[in-house]
Amino acid sequence: MSRSRPLRVAVLVSGRGSNLQALIDARAAGQLPIELVLVASDKVAAHGLRRAEAAGIATLALTPRSHPTRAAFDAELFARIAASTPDLIVLAGFMRILDGAVLAPWHGRIINIHPSLLPRYPGLHTHERALAAGDAEHGSSVHFVTAELDGGPLLAQVRIPIHAGDTPETLAQRLLPHEHRLLLACVDLIARGRVELAAGEVRLDGAALPAPLQLPAHGTTFA
Ligand code: GRF
Question: What pLDDT, in 10s, does the model give residues 18-56?
Fold first, then answer.
C-alpha cells in the first residue's frame, strides 16, 4: 500500500547522532518522504539533540535519574513521543533497554539499527566481538523492535569485509557510512508503505521476506 503523505518519524538518540544526520540530510535533499517530528534523548548532552536543533526539529531530553523507576521513565518518554503522533519511531544509537509494556503499542512501528549481522552479537561491543571471533565479514542490521534486546524480526542488513589489521575502531569507522545507507534504505521502504510487520513476519510488497534484505555495496536501494 503506497502512502500519500510524508511518514511522521520520531528518532531516539543517546549520543553522536550521525544516523539521525543521515535522515536529516536525505530529507533536506528531497530524497526521503518523511517529516522528522521529534528527536528525543535520555542524555541532555547528546550531540544528536544539537543536530536536531540545528535542523529546526522539535527535541526532548528526559533524564532517567529524575524518574523513580525505569518503567516510569519509559512510560513518560513514550507518552511524550506519542504526543508527537509519529507513524514510525527509529532507535538510532539509543542506548537503553526499553520496557516491553511501552513497546507493545508500537509493535511494527518501531525499528532499531544495530552494528552487527544479527542474530550474531546482540548487545554491546559488536566490533570487538566480530574481530575476536575471527569473522570474515561484519555489518549492520535494521530490525523491528520487540522486548527482546536486538532480537526482533530483521528487515535488512549491509555487509562489509573485515580486513587483516582491523581494530574495533577502524571497523566501526568503515561500517558507519554503510549503516547510514542501510537506515535510509529501510526508512524509505517504510515511508513508501512497502514494508509491514504482520503475524510476526516482515512483508515487502505483501510477500513475507524469507531472509533479511541485503543492501548492495553502493547506493540506497535494495537489489
Ligand atoms: C551506530 O553504530 C548504531 O548502529 C548503534 O549506535 C551507533 C550510533 O551512532 N546502535 P550515531 O549516534 O548514529 O552516530
Answer: 999 999 999 999 999 999 999 999 999 999 999 999 999
Ligand 1 closest atom vs CA 114: 4
Bridge-based pairing of strands 7-13 and 34-41 is parallel
Distance, CA of 112 to CA of 143 (rounded, Å)? 6
CA of 112 to the centre of ligand 1 (A): 10
As given in the structure block, the three cell numbers for residue 115 are: 552494528
Domain boundaries, the chain: 7-215
The topology (CATH level 3) of 7-215 is Rossmann fold (3.40.50)
In testing the pocket of ligand 1, which one of 12, 14, 19 has its CB within 8 Å of the most ligand atoms?
19
Could you tell me if residue 17 is left (phi over 0), alpha (psi between -120 and 50 degrees) or otherwise beta?
A: left
Mapped onto helix, strand or coil, the DSSP state of residue 62 is: coil
Predicted model pTM: 0.97
Instruction: Report the catalytic residues.
Output: 114
For ligand 1, say whether the CB of 141 is within 6 Å of any of its atoms.
Answer: no
Q: How far is the CA of 93 from the centre of ligand 1 (A)?
A: 4
* CA nearest ligand 1 atom 10, residue: 93
93: cell is 544509537
C-alpha cell at 13: 538518540
- Measured in Å, residue 168 CA sits from the centre of ligand 1 at 14
- How does pLDDT run across 176-215, given as a tens digit for each residue? 999 999 999 999 999 999 999 999 999 999 999 999 999 9
Helix, strand, or coil here: 112?
strand
